[in-house]
Structure to design on (892 residues):
């Protein structure tokens, strides 16, 4: 007889992690508003801290922030924001799929770079009609990302190796594998100099631009992926099982949801989405994979964007736009004699502030809900 | 055992409530100095709650705690330790990589200017071991010790902190017989030195063998204090399970002829390679409730989880003529097996999710609750509203998170989820554990209704009143085996207690 109605929650580091990752789930409008308000408050706190940092380094926060604000009125800068947010949406969505069942996929970085190389090479070797060619390349990218991610899933299920360890290690392995494949098999030997690449993908496989030279249609694919993520996770039976496995793996097992299968499925989906991260560049800008041409680091940025967006597709898109915007201002800031590293500092502080503020908000919300319930049901409960 | 000195521990009129449940009421206990005092009772009788009160882990709602004649208001175990109370938990709390010495001084390290004074600790401990009659190599890492030795480390740790009242929670549960004898010798030596030992157990032979006084707990309160010389094992068992058992509820329907659940030669191998369920064979017919009595940890959990397919097992499980021995959890569920889990927080609920999502769990594949590959949220919510209405779950609506509900209401939701599908076979494990009387009656009524509608119910419970009142057939599990089958209409608590504690063996009725 040790039962209580109090909010028994996991404690310690893993508890904290699971709360950050799966979040609270009380779905009322008031709760949603409170969550949004707390995210905004976190951004405000982060901006204040950055202002202090700027002051300490002898720069004017007013100048820095007004420069940032000015860029918001520049349509070219806004297009740049959309462009830069594209890979972040993919990578954050990939991370969020894992978070939804308490899997921490830190390996998006390796998964997307591996996928970029394979997809670029495969795309350059086939000739297909326009749309089919693009679809083919995207599917190859998803398959390659899923393949790389599946290694971690299989290791976790059959060898009980924590995915954080295996995905980190596989990031390093991916870099070496990519280099080896590229140097030995996939490199276009006709290209001289530093800007080595795979063979250029034929025009039928090139993603069309939405705005010439500034934004290609991968941005729309990113939005569609976020939408598909929402349907999959929040509306489908599979998503329900995924979330159930994340919230309470024991209860999920009792309910006949095989946790092992869900781990593999989640890693496959996460890896497939990760495979699309660099496609805006590979089939939209450089039309090839190149060690210096293909952008890196988006896998790690995706983790922070997923945290900031609270693993919800709408939140992820907004957070990706915010980060894309901040990234797009770095050139302007440099012109205004503000070190552009302040942007990275700001992004990191925003995420820290969000995690801290959210934790406090969730606690208060949960306490409030429990309190209300007690008041409402006390009359009927003999205790 | 003199009347002039105050008792080492005196509890008077202790009440402890948790939401939805009264864990302790009117508890009175007096433990004389320098004695071994046993507290016996069934699982759920309130022993652990009482010990937590005594060790300062929570505060009682009413009543007084006096230690050596002084009223205490303990706020934390630190206060209890300061008052000379030490506790050896059933599950050891030792750091595996530390040596015996390091483990014992952990938390109360003798230090000289911030540097641990290992030499003085070693001298003190050697002296302590000599007095208590224990020999341990202080430099061995705890990871290399056996269970009995670890327990000695725990006891030494408590004594090193200056405890003269030592509480041992089920200390023999993990020991082999020789280790039990050594433990008892140690305890004897301790009390001869003036230490007071409080010993929690449900093994009646041991209690009678080692203790100077026995207090019996049942259903949250202390029901008797006896001297071991004045009572025998049967008498103690009767006190433990209660002498007044209710007459089984008269049933208006007959038990069907067909076996809906047939279990044959079911065996389960535990983590240590031992059989935790051994050759279980029984059947549950349509409209029948078969009860399983037993002290917790004798294979009931493993039996139930093997039947629902969560745990590998050998043997046969047949439901309505279909052999599901090798089927998956989901296929067994689809074959009509429903399960009310032992521990609702661990195995049944997503505490942070809404009630309707909890109501959907396990039923998300049913055609009424889905549209193609999508969840039909409207149908899922309305189905959960049905559960809420029918089972009287007290909640404003189906969107509140499960953690906000009291234990009784959470349990009603879990029971409702299992029963609303009208399963062929229901495995009900502690369906009314930790819930209030009103909710208990509601769950019982639902179980009876399902039985009358032809459901085959396997009922596992620690509440003997519940078992005897509901069951048509009563099986007793002991040490992984079905030790006896008894007729619930004609069973005395003494007989039942005898089977449950392994004192009596063989089939009887």
């Amino acid at each position: 007889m040790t039962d209580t109605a109090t909010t028994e929650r996991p404690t310690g580091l893993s508890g904290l992690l699971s709360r950050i990752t799966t979040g609270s789930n009380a779905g009322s409008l008031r709760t949603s508003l409170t969550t949004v308000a707390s995210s905004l408050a976190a951004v405000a706190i982060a901006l204040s801290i950055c202002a202090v940092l700027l002051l300490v380094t002898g720069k004017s926060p007013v100048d820095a922030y007004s420069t940032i604000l000015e860029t918001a009125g520049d349509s070219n800068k806004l297009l740049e924001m959309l462009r830069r947010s594209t890979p972040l949406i993919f990578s954050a969505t990939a991370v969020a799929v894992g978070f939804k069942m308490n899997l921490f996929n830190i390996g998006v970085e390796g998964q997307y770079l591996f996928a970029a190389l394979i997809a670029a090479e495969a795309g350059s070797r086939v000739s297909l009609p326009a749309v089919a060619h693009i679809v083919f390349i995207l599917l190859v990218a998803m398959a390659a990302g899923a393949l790389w991610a599946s290694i971690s899933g299989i290791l976790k299920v059959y060898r009980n190796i924590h995915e954080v360890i295996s995905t980190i290690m596989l990031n390093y392995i991916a870099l070496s594998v990519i280099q080896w494949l590229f140097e030995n098999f996939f490199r276009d030997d006709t290209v001289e100099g530093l800007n080595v690449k795979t063979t250029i993908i034929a025009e039928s496989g090139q993603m069309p631009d939405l705005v010439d030279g500034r934004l290609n249609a991968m941005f729309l694919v990113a939005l569609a992926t976020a939408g598909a993520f929402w349907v999959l996770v929040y509306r489908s039976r599979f998503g329900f099982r995924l979330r159930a496995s994340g919230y309470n793996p024991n209860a999920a097992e009792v309910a006949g949801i095989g946790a092992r299968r869900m781990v593999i499925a989640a890693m496959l989906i996460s890896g497939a989405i990760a495979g699309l991260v660099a496609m805006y560049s590979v089939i939209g800008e450089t039309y090839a994979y190149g060690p210096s041409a293909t952008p890196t680091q988006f896998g790690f940025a995706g983790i922070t964007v997923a945290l900031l967006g609270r693993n919800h597709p709408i939140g992820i898109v907004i957070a990706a736009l915010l980060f894309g915007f901040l990234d797009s201002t770095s050139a302007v800031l440099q012109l205004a004699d503000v070190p552009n590293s302040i942007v990275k500092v700001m992004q990191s502080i925003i995420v820290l502030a969000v995690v801290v503020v959210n934790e406090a908000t969730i606690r208060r919300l949960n306490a409030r809900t429990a309190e209300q319930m007690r008041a409402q049901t006390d009359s009927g409960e003999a205790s | 055992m003199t009347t002039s000195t105050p008792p080492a521990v005196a509890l008077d009129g202790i009440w402890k409530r948790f939401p939805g449940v009264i864990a302790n009421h009117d508890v009175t206990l007096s433990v004389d100095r320098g004695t071994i005092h046993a507290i016996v009772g069934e699982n759920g009788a309130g022993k652990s709650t009482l010990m937590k009160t005594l060790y300062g882990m929570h505060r009682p709602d009413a009543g007084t705690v006096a230690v050596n004649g002084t009223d205490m208001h303990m706020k934390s175990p630190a206060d209890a330790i300061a008052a000379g109370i030490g506790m050896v938990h059933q599950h050891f709390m030792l750091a595996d990589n530390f040596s015996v010495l390091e483990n014992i001084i952990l938390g109360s390290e003798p230090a000289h200017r911030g540097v641990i004074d290992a030499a003085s600790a070693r001298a003190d401990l050697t002296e302590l071991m000599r007095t208590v009659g224990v020999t341990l190599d202080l430099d061995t890492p705890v990871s290399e010790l056996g269970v009995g030795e670890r327990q000695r480390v725990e006891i030494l740790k408590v004594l090193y902190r200056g405890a003269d009242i030592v509480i041992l929670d089920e200390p023999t549960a993990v020991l082999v017989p020789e280790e039990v004898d050594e433990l008892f010798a140690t305890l004897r030596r301790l009390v001869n030195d003036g230490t007071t030992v409080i010993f929690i157990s449900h093994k009646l032979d041991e209690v009678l063998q080692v203790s100077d006084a026995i207090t019996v707990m049942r259903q949250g309160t202390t029901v008797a204090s006896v001297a071991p010389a004045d009572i025998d094992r049967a008498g103690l068992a009767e006190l433990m399970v209660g002498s007044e058992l209710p007459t089984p509820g008269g049933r208006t329907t007959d038990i069907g002829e067909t076996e809906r659940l047939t279990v044959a030669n079911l065996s389960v191998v535990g983590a240590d390679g031992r059989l935790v369920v051994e050759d279980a064979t029984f059947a549950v017919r349509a409209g029948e409730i078969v009860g399983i009595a037993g002290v917790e940890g004798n294979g009931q959990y493993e039996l139930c989880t093997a039947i629902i397919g969560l745990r590998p097992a050998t043997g046969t499980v047949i439901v309505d003529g279909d052999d599901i021995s090798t089927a998956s959890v989901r296929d067994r569920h689809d074959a009509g097996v429903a399960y009310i889990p032992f521990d609702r927080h661990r195995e049944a609920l997503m505490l942070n999710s809404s009630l309707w999502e909890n109501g959907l769990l396990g039923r998300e594949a049913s055609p009424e609750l889905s549209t193609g590959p999508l969840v039909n949220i409207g149908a899922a919510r309305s189905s959960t509203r049905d559960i809420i209405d029918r089972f009287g779950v007290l909640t404003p609506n189906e969107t509140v998170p499960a953690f906000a509900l009291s234990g009784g209401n959470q349990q009603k939701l879990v029971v409702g989820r299992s029963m609303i599908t009208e399963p062929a076979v229901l495995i009900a494990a502690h369906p009314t554990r930790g819930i209030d009387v009103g909710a208990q009656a509601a769950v019982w009524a639902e179980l009876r209704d399902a039985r009358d509608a032809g459901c085959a119910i396997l009922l596992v419970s620690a509440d003997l009143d519940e078992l005897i009142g509901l069951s048509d057939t009563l099986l007793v599990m002991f040490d992984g085996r079905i030790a006896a089958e008894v007729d619930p209409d004609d069973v005395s608590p003494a007989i039942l207690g005898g089977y449950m504690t392994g004192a009596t063996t063989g089939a009887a009725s």
User: Anything to note?
Assistant: The longest helix of chain A spans residues 341-377. Confidence is low (pLDDT under 50) at residues 1-27, 378-383 of chain A.
